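Q: what sequence does this backbone want?
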């Protein structure tokens, strides 16, 4: 067992295999085609959402508050290695959360179903947040981290814009999550 857990790839593979077993255990005949696929895409939506919002909280609760405490000589490691990797998972988590969320929405809104308002509000907040990730946070982070060339003043301004937009997403995250959860009861 320790051999599996020592490497991240084998750990993730073991988790995926167990999820596949669960997927096969609850088959289409048992649940019905629409319910089966809706459940599958809800699972993916939640998985990608955890990745996205987990990293949003990491940035806002851990990285941003800790950066002033890090010695100057260690900060380049954060900007060169940790932040770009975290931002990769952050923005693609957002993209796949939106994609799977739209799939779930369309599976649930087939003819004869009704749309509850919490899901519409949750989707709207999620779409605003995803827009912020791709079109405000990421372009500004590229400048702030030196991934694209920028002078020091532009880097500082970009870092602040990315941080404030990330804080907007943090503000929107709780009502968005609440609307998503509330949807299950409407």
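A:
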């Amino acid at each position: 067992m320790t051999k599996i857990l020592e490497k991240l790839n084998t750990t993730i593979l073991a988790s995926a295999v167990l999820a596949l077993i669960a997927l096969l255990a609850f088959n289409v005949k048992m649940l019905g085609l629409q319910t089966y696929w809706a459940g599958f895409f809800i699972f993916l939506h939640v998985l990608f959402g955890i990745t996205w919002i987990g990293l949003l909280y990491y940035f806002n609760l851990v990285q941003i508050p800790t950066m002033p405490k890090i010695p100057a000589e260690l900060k380049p490691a954060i900007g060169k290695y940790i932040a770009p990797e975290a931002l990769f998972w952050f923005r693609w988590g957002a993209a796949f959360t939106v994609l799977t969320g739209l799939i779930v929405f369309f599976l649930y809104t087939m003819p004869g179903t009704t749309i509850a308002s919490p899901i519409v509000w949750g989707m709207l907040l999620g779409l605003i947040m995803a827009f912020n990730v791709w079109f405000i946070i990421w372009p500004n982070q590229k400048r702030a981290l030196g991934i694209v060339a920028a002078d020091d003043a532009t880097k500082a301004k970009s870092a602040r814009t990315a941080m404030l937009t990330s804080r907007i997403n943090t503000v929107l995250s709780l009502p968005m999550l609440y609307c998503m959860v509330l949807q299950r009861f409407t």
